[in-house]
């Protein structure tokens, strides 16, 4: 399905959601009649198909076969939906299912004309170059994204960088570490060193996209748009961001506790996405207990027990643990029609000389409370594995090695989770998360951003905000504190010569 059809579907869903949400201010019968009218338009489409089918039976049979293979809305499913009565809830349910299933865009193409006639003033969609209407929103309702898994191209590592003990940037892999497999019951004491051998990164320093931008300046020749010279300023990329920001998008349809704010700026054709700390997150950070701080340390300590600085080295759990240090991969991929460039921290790599090339050689290290009851295992599948899967699937990291610890912070068991098998682990959980919902929401969010963030200006920020069980909304800010592209990046990208940084 092309981009226009995808946008039409999003437009239909947003409009109908808006109509439903305004039931307290409008006559519910009006809203029901509107949806009935939209369904009638679809019925006309079916009748038209029948006429064409009689004239061109052979051609239509081939088209139907192709539609069945691609998951397009079938006439039978439409007819079934239309026969199910006219209650408001029934209409909502059936229309949502039809829209979600309409991968060819044929239904939304018919319905859009009806919507245009009845669209409220505050639901207009801007064309390219116009100021967007900030009343537009994007739903996170899971059922809207239960369609075929979108195209996600195998991530390719295009570079890496390191941050040293003082958080200085280096355009190389000097901070890479190597995984050393421990015993299955290692009895690691994760509390060790917290009081006397721990240098904690300053969380109050907001680095935004700065390290990623430094990497871009040092590697512009790798990112030049096709058909341009190596010194071109324009990147062959739609979105630049951190892996963690994309992880928040993947998990949003299932997140029930923490909201987020993402700042977006379009600059020289590329959309940059940076996180903005919410008030709730700031309060949580200020109110962390000593126990919470120590438990955050446990994850880093587990890495110290299982990672060596050199390929033939051994872990040094007696050394100083400095969380300023980091090794980050930079990967390029494509989700649907969105070309992505993002970076994420990598814990370690497989030290086997025959291991596959990055990112397939990377390993994510995690800790989790030991699982003692069926309820704990169910919660682990529903919540913890969702975030682990999203974080590793995006950059193409193939496995997570987990240390399960007791209440005293002692690792009592180890388990490896291949990312490709996590979806099988959760399939028997009732009403559990679905990878296809995660990826389709992320894809539609990026389409939404492309649609609203139209002004190419480093001083303009589109602030997208979301709270659990709410829609994604946005506001536009000009020359505001939300601006995040630094002057040194803007100036360098508009100059004629690429930069060469250490």
From TrEMBL:
Compositionally skewed regions (Polar residues) per UniProt: 115-138
Annotated localization: Nucleus
UniProt KW Disulfide bond keyword: no
Gene Ontology terms describing biological process: NAD-cap decapping; nuclear-transcribed mRNA catabolic process
Catalytic activity, as annotated: a 5'-end FAD-phospho-ribonucleoside in mRNA + H2O = a 5'-end phospho-ribonucleoside in mRNA + FAD + H(+); a 5'-end CoA-ribonucleoside in mRNA + H2O = 3'-dephospho-CoA + a 5'-end phospho-ribonucleoside in mRNA + H(+); a 5'-end NAD(+)-phospho-ribonucleoside in snoRNA + H2O = a 5'-end phospho-ribonucleoside in snoRNA + NAD(+) + H(+)
Pfam families tied to this protein: RAI1
Signal peptide extent: none
Keyword list, A-Z: Hydrolase, Magnesium, Metal-binding, Nuclease, Nucleotide-binding, Nucleus, RNA-binding
UniProt-listed Enzyme Commission number(s): 3.6.1.-
Region ranges (Disordered): 113-138
Gene Ontology cellular component annotations, sorted alphabetically: cytosol; nucleus
A molecular function GO annotation: nucleotide binding
Function: Decapping enzyme for NAD-capped RNAs: specifically hydrolyzes the nicotinamide adenine dinucleotide (NAD) cap from a subset of RNAs by removing the entire NAD moiety from the 5'-end of an NAD-capped RNA.
Family stated for the protein in its record: Belongs to the DXO/Dom3Z family.
Listed name of the protein: Decapping nuclease
Organism of this sequence: Champsocephalus gunnari
């Amino acid at each position: 399905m092309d981009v226009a059809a995808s946008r039409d579907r999003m437009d239909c869903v947003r409009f109908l959601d808006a109509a439903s949400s305004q039931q307290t201010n409008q006559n519910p019968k009006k809203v029901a009649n509107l949806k009935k009218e939209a369904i009638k338009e679809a019925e006309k489409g079916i009748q038209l198909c029948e006429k064409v089918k009689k004239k061109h039976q052979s051609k239509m049979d081939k088209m139907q076969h192709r539609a069945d293979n691609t998951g397009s809305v079938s006439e039978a499913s439409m007819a079934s939906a239309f026969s199910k009565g006219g209650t408001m809830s029934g209409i909502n349910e059936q229309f949502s299912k039809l829209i979600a299933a309409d991968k060819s865009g044929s239904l939304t193409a018919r319905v859009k004309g009806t919507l245009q006639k009845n669209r409220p003033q505050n639901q207009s969609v801007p064309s390219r170059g116009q100021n967007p209407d900030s009343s537009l929103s994007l739903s996170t309702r899971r059922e809207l994204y239960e369609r075929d898994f979108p195209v996600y191209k195998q991530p390719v590592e295009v570079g890496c960088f390191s941050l040293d003990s003082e958080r200085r940037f280096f355009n190389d892999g000097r901070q890479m570490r190597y995984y050393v497999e421990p015993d299955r019951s290692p009895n690691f004491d994760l509390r060790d060193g917290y009081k006397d051998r721990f240098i904690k990164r300053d969380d109050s320093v907001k680095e935004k996209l700065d390290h990623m931008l430094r990497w871009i300046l040092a590697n512009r020749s790798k990112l030049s748009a096709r058909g341009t010279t190596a010194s071109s300023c324009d990147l062959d990329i739609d979105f630049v961001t951190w892996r963690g920001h994309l992880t928040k998008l993947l998990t949003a349809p299932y997140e029930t506790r923490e909201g987020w704010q993402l700042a977006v700026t379009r600059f020289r054709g590329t959309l940059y996405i940076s996180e903005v700390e919410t008030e709730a997150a700031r309060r949580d950070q200020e109110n962390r207990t000593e126990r919470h701080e120590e438990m955050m340390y446990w994850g880093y300590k587990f890495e110290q027990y299982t990672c060596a600085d050199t390929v033939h080295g051994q872990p040094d759990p007696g050394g100083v643990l400095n969380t300023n240090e980091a090794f980050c991969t930079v990967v390029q991929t494509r989700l649907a029609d969105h070309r992505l460039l993002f970076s994420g921290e990598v814990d370690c790599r497989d030290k086997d000389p025959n291991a596959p090339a990055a990112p397939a050689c990377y390993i994510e290290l995690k800790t989790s409370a030991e699982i003692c009851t069926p309820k704990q295992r169910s919660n682990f599948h529903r919540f913890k594995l969702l975030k682990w899967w999203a974080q590793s699937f995006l950059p193409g990291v193939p496995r997570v090695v987990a240390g399960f610890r007791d209440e005293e912070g002692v690792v009592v068991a180890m388990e490896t989770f291949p990312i490709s098998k996590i979806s099988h682990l959760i399939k028997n959980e009732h009403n559990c998360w679905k990878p296809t919902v995660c990826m389709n929401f992320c894809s539609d969010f990026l389409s939404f951003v492309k649609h609203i963030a139209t002004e190419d200006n480093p001083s303009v920020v589109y602030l997208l905000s979301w709270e659990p069980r709410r829609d994604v909304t946005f506001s536009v800010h000009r020359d505001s504190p939300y601006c995040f592209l630094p002057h040194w990046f803007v100036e360098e990208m508009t100059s004629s010569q690429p930069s060469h940084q250490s």
